[in-house]
Structures
1.
Amino acid sequence: MAQWRRTLALIALLVVAATPTAWATRDEPPPGRINGAPAGPGDIYLALGDSLATGDEEPSNSADEGYLPGYPAYLDAILDRTQPILLTVDLAVSGETSSSMRASGGQLEQAVAFIAAQHAQGRRVSPVTLSIGGNDMVGTFLGQSTLTITDTLPLFRANLEVILDTLLSALTENGQRTGDLIVMNYYNPYPGLTIRSLPPQIVLAPGQEPIVTDVEVPRFNQIIAEEAAERGIPIVDAYGAFLGRIDQLTFVRLPYNFLDLANIARNFDYHPREAGHQVLARGFAEASGYPLVLPRAWVPMVK
């Protein structure tokens, strides 16, 4: 089954490559939901975003856990319980930022072309899940970006506005919404941490002020909350779901050990474990508003 779905995703990419980009233009973006009701599952579930959607993590941690998939595979399993004919396509890109997603020929453009191609063939794409912004955020935390938090926040908001409006337009035909878009906010991967001057692997960008993660993650999430609410898009509260469980649901080792330089990437790997991906999948399922049967054995959204 997993290999078959990977093959489907590869076919989808080939279709996208051969399909002209279909950019919808509107003075006002269509609402995420009409009268608050979801459009419901369609023929294809489309996963978009970053490494949370691809399931990638630090290689040594992948080897330990058995190279398991990201949350879309677990959401697929939930959808299959009531929608067994629903196919899954994952166009997510590891390391994707809100800026790279918008780049010419990038993931957003591919997603719009894919949705248009499916509509042209009489197939409906719904739901569409999105996890984007984590690399914008963590890039500033770990000195991987030359931008400061002050620079990153307005850039992320501007990018997110375009991403959401573009996807909603792609999911609208003749003024009618044809598919559901669901987004997630982000958990705080490093609770209680103030980033000043850490080992060489984790450094501040030039001129960057110390970062208090407990302050900055909510600022990112506030942008997601505001932009999603303006468009009636449901949100998965990953921040609340992971709160107090970061070492259970991700690969981050607590208490922090900055002296173990040989394993610093492994110990500070902010990607979810299998339990974390299950929590995200359950969150997307609950946010969808679909009548679904949730697996009892999986880790719940709340403690």
2.
Amino acid sequence: MATQDDIDEGDGRAVEIAGHRLGGAHFTIIAGPCAVESREQLLQSARAVAAGGAAMLRGGAYKPRTSPYSFQGLGQEGLRLLAEARAHTGLPIVTEVIDPRDLPELLEVADVLQIGARNMQNYALLTEVGRCGRPALLKRGLGATLDELLMAAEYLLAQGNESVILCERGIRTFETAYRFTLDLMAIPVLKSRTHLPVIVDPSHAAGRRDLVLPMSLAAAAAGADGVIVEVHPRPAEAICDAAQQLPCDEFADYAERVHAVAAQVGKIPATGVTA
């Protein structure tokens, strides 16, 4: 079990985010809805994950979608709601950037800028995010090797942004029983090759809420520094990714079980502010 000295000293893998620490001796749960849909939906989600043990709130104001006719997010209104949720809960905000032109508005709200799987090799975007100096969460591309993920991270690091978090979110293989194949071997391999924190996105890998808990437990056991999961007050009514979002009323139990496994490999929960 890690001690307070371990937390204070860290192991070279910690990123400071609005007074919170991701990496080192901490295990961080980032949770919230896939997309910001309404004030009621977001605040319900934010309060539930804050009370349940999440350390940060995720929520998409801008949503890159496969179909151009799908919901693309609320944009600036979504950012305003995320700022309100942070004021209510004290949780730092993790939200996605898909266009460098949106950075001025995002930087007013986002404590962490997420770069999604489909933008992992968008080098212009990576360069601009690197220059802005805000912590960045970089997701592995659907068909990217670990070398390619690390080189994408170098685009951020080369601009002087040392606060980079790597995220394994599943890769596309021949298997069709689930959405993507979650590459848990990436966790120890990345940790052996880089000083950067490594987290896992079981929601997007699985595409099914019944697989989110077992894959989160496996990620914690494999030594991940945290998970980023989707949570919604009424998942069946979610505008996007309804099948993979956990119900708010199940989140506290989920977080307790995941933190228990993380503790077995020496991680201490990085908890947020109780709403």
3.
Amino acid sequence: METQRIIRLNAILLCVVVILMVTVAFIFDKTTIPKETENVVTASLASKPHTVEVTTPSSISYQTASGSVISATSSSISAKEKRQKEKMRKKKIKEQRRKKRLQQKKRAERKRLLEQKKAQRKLTEAETYSYTHQELLTLAKIIWAEARGESYKGKVSVGAVAMNRLNTKSSEFGAENGSLMEVLLKKWAFADISDLSDEEFKNSDYYDDCIKAALAALAGEDPTKEYFQNGALFFYDIYMDISEKQKRYREGIDTYKIGCHAFHVELND
């Protein structure tokens, strides 16, 4: 009995050993690469030194035959560079628009000045009177008689009143015939200069100033237009005593004072 039991145990152990050996052989067979397969893989790696793996849109990875990986930046523009380029583009457009507005403003200003000069030239041409030497001398004498002690502006203003009366073409001022001499010599219109000879006038202290003022008035200069649109038609000395009748004519009227004279465009009835 004892011998049979030992034999059975040995048989069981032998079976276990066989089973273990078969299992180990099977596992080893599965994990070992066949020689033919190994040869194929080796040939493939030899024909392709490296493979390229694109990891991100902005970078490229290279895997060499040795297994090392090399990363390189792609040629595509990064988001930051795009923002910078867009910013520069907008800045350039803004600068171009600014320059365009500046050019337009300069052109408009040049056009305005040109039109202003043309208008001034037309106004001057319209108001310039083709005078004779005697008319110039007579107007200068009246300026001398009325305003020789006044400033240059005051002298020109007196001469301008005579020219404004001429431009009205009204018989009230003796201007119906378009003659400056008739306007200057109309009775009671201006100071009487009948006793002032040409020689006496030329030798007076204010001759040059009065001639200059007369020339300016004949050329269309009129300081009273600073206040009245069409210039003054009357004036009087604010420090001179006048009659009650003259006071009623001027009572409450709108005047523009230059020196000792008050210039106006109307009289009370």
